[in-house]
Amino acid sequence: MANIGKIFASRACGLAKAANYSNNVRFYCCASPKAFEFIKTELVGEKKNVALITLNRPKALNALCNGLMSEVSQALDQFEADSTVGAIVITGSEKAFAAGADIKEMQPNTYAKCIMGNFLNNWTRVAQAQKPVIAAVNGYALGGGCEFAMMCDIIYAGDKAKFGQPEIALGTIPGAGGSQRTTRVMGKSKAMEMCLTGNMINAEEAERSGLVSKVFPADKVVGEAIKLGEKISTFSPLIVQLCKEAVNTAYETTLHEGLKFERRHFHATFSTKDRQEGMTAFVEKRAPKRNAAVCKAKYFCLIIIRRVEPSVPSWSFPIDQFTSEFIPQ
């Protein structure tokens, strides 16, 4: 209960401060084009409202190095600031999602260097994303690659995908969540087997174990992940984020605290125009109005100052997502 109280107290303080600026100012931030070395980025889907990040180190089977993870973090920052993006898909190649961490880069490390440099601390940006992140996994997802996929919210796998935590064969153990997330997702026995033997599991076994949501033919998995992102993007971004937080709380805390967190978030939706419009549309047997104009420019940041009429749905103005629309009027 104390943890839940702290979460809501922290959120309330942020909302109160932000609310002072939200009535007449609306911010629209769009990702600027940026040349990356280790990844490719683009907006995809029929409405270009899904961001696609493709890991691009083909000669190294997309091995995760500090440069690549830094670029992923930068791309996530850009797409999370872009109000037109509703979901993010991360993928690799058909041969490898990511075959592990870059061992050549890691090999010279010492214990002191790992401790003093807080090694791998900056690899967790994906797990901290506010928008839904979908991993589209083909080929090998091993070691750090498997851990990277598990940091995402949903995993779609190609039928030839392979998952594993082979660190034991290198004289080390998982360091980015492999021993922790596999246990929570697949149970202690399966996690022990994977981590203590380094054995790989295929996509079908990963799906049966709960690691993967769905399995598709290898050439279809990215497209299916994008379709999923498009569907998620049709809903209120505020409510999507609240729902994601509720599921993550179930994953990370006790049932008692999780139920309390969920109920309070459910109650909070009744202060939003998103919920009001959604339920009103259902009762009136019509589609909810979610298509008000939003800035479509992708290559600059634009600040628009205007008076917003109360009748305009809150999701038209993303700056309100955790500001005044969240606080009862």
UniProtKB/TrEMBL annotation:
InterPro entries: ClpP/crotonase-like_dom_sf (IPR029045), Enoyl-CoA_hyd/isom_CS (IPR018376), Enoyl-CoA_hydra/iso (IPR001753), Enoyl-CoA_hydra_C (IPR014748)
Biological process according to GO: fatty acid metabolic process
Signal peptide per UniProt: none
Superkingdom of origin organism: Eukaryota
Gene3D superfamilies: 2-enoyl-CoA Hydratase, Chain A, domain 1, Lyase 2-enoyl-coa Hydratase, Chain A, domain 2
Entry keyword annotation includes Chloroplast: no
SUPFAM superfamilies tied to this protein: ClpP/crotonase
Record PANTHER family: ENOYL-COA HYDRATASE, MITOCHONDRIAL (PTHR11941:SF54), ENOYL-COA HYDRATASE-RELATED (PTHR11941)
Name of the molecule in the record: Probable enoyl-CoA hydratase, mitochondrial
Native species: Culex pipiens pipiens (Northern house mosquito)
